[in-house]
Amino acid sequence: MVKRMNGVHVPHYKNTADCAPNRMPVPAQLVIPMAMHIGAKANPVVKPGDTVKVGQLIAEAGGFVSAPIYSGVSGTVKKIEDVLVASGQKVPAVIIESDGQQEVYEGVKPPEVTDLESFINAVRDSGSVGLGGAGFPTSVKLKCDLDKIDAVIVNGAECEPFITSDTRTMLDRADEVYDALKLIEKYMLVKKIIIGIEDNKPECIENFRNLCKDDPAVTVQALPSSYPQGGEKVLIFNTIGRIVPEGKLPLDAGAIVLNCTTLATIGRYVKTGMPLVEKCVTVDGSAVANPQNVIAPIGTPLKDIFEFTGGFKEDPYKVLYGGPMMGLAVPSLDSPLLKNTNAVLAFNQKDATPPEPTPCIKCGRCIAACPLQLMPAEIQIALNKGDVEDLKALKVNLCMECGCCTFVCPAKRPLGQNHKLGKAMVMKAKQEADAKAKAEAEKKAAAEAAAKEKEV
What we know:
The chain has helices at residues 116-125, 138-142, 165-172, 174-188, 202-211, 232-240, 260-272, 302-308, 349-352, 365-369, 376-385, 388-393, 404-408, 415-455, and strands at residues 22-23, 29-33, 43-44, 51-52, 57-60, 69-70, 75-84, 90-98, 151-156, 193-198, 218-223, 255-259, 278-284, 292-297, 318-321, 328-329, 343-347. It is α/β, with parallel strands linked by helices.
């Protein structure tokens, strides 16, 4: 048995796990950003006034690391304009007015998959990205040197409090997950597939063990319920005992990690031809009247989703995309449901107000909790001094921003937030150094050119 990475035991609050998701009515309007994935923005292929149908392409991938986007409603493209997203940036978005008919696009049909290339093309065409929150285009993960891969790990950990949308996938769509795994076995020649599920989801574990019992390539591994069990590096170490080297990818540890809902999307697309157009999302939090899982078209304004669940029982003081440990605060309830949104949580003022920090007592709990054995208190000191070299020596860029250090700190210091600032400081210093080196190289080249011209 391998030694497991550190972490913390957070309250589960899995209030919505036992109830099947409810499908909300077709929203009047979708707001679909062109940046719902890591990498290049998608490029719209529609224009204002165009009519669209469910499953119709509205934006093509903007590069190799990108993903296409499809309409989740039938209706009319109203406009294309910039919208504010949770990162603080403005990105183009296609605004679609629904006609309420949900007419399916005529071009929706199962892809022809006959070899590895056509399988990866199908994954790309499905619009799949990391649906557990990361948003990395799935086809890019799969387009790799197969000789380097000896394990595919299915991420069914779902370790954050409140979130249960992946749990519902593993209960309601396990067959689609397994269909995708069989395609991976067949075309990527993978001999070892590990489905990692936290042990607080016994029904999911039993479900997959029954489904995959006759497949020798597949193992269902029950994992301790410890946050951040679903982090890629943590999951790899806790399932196959390997460490992803600094600055490297899971591929360099011989593994590919795929979210269970991402796999279900691939399985459904290959079988039906319907790309990623809707999402099951957990709606919960102390301000929510009726917590539940909801199926809604991607691009649905959050205010419509909350209204469908009965609205708020208290004024929402903070609304998050994702969970309370790693989630991002949304700028407005007009913000849309994204591809990689697995939960929208609304909290009252009491739960959303951070405690006042007090001086560090040097207890070392942050170090003990960190999965990557970083030194958060020392990183904070380096940040306060503006010491970029210290930040790099303390490996601030290794931080996965899980928030374990902040969670366990008895002084309530914002350690995780400081890590983000530290990483930004290191990045800024690198950009400035690169710009300086480039300017010096250009100056030197210009001087050499002038000298040659003078000789002539």
